[in-house]
Amino acid sequence: MADLQTLIGDRLAQNRWGILGNQGYVLGIDLGSYGLRAALADLQHHTIRTGHAELSGGAPDEIVEQAIALAGNLLKEAEITPDRLVRVSVGFAGPVDLRFGTVRLSLRMPGWENYPLQERFEQAFDAVTLIDNDANLIALAEATFGVGAGRQHLCYLHLSSGVGGGLVLNGRLYHGATSTAGEIGHAVVGRGWDGTGRPETLEELVSITGLLSRAASYGLTTDNLELIFSDSPIGRRVVSETVDLVAMRCAQTVALIDPEMIVLGGIVVRIGGEPFVRAIADKVNDFIAPQFARPLPVVASILGHDSVTAGAIADALDSLSD
What is the C-alpha separation between 282 and 279, in angstroms, rounded? Predict the structure, then answer.
């Protein structure tokens, strides 16, 4: 796993973030993608301080207070006051509305509908605060600090309990008209996998639940995702179908936005490992029309559990040059 201090420190040293890029601190917070995580970046000395805590559940206000306390502890450890913060950036494990600074909803935790996330953190730290979806921030993290560092056009696909994605175009996150660009999991990919003939989305078929459900329909009932990637005949069938489904959507994305790289992440990718990523990469390049063949790099993400906080730091830094 990549060392966050080295990756972010090296990029901070390049100091391309405008007039505020050599003073103060930026704070990145991951609100639930990998528990509660926070990272504090010193823009002058190019150092990173990180902290994490288990997400114990609870109402949205309780979870936010836990995150604020975690971030507050980082400030205390660094012996700085909140007035030294030039930006705060928060990643949330669900869709957000950037126009209003609110959470749309959480598929894993109830009660987040229309929650004023941006306002809560601005009140806590009295600093300009940005919010974004976790998959978007992972995309930006990988393009800024990670496996896609230096790439201007990158697509990220996240395969986990849900299926999400993020787009970095011209070196910046692309959100679309309503903050939902990159949500490839909601794309309809066909009919009939469940026997009803109804339209089904990519998320229904290749999320953790989707993989386990398809395995069960073929006669392998399990809650162990690793068994899907074992050498069982049913597991091989499910993985082969998944490779085709993901690779086809990636190839269609290539035709639409022409990225320099596709990055794959999430627990499904971690458990599937290099063979799974390589199989998808091979199929993507088979599916790309000949005139676009490069070949296109399709690779696994490298930032792991720190990816959302790293993306939040990158988002905060980019905002300094706006």
Answer: 5
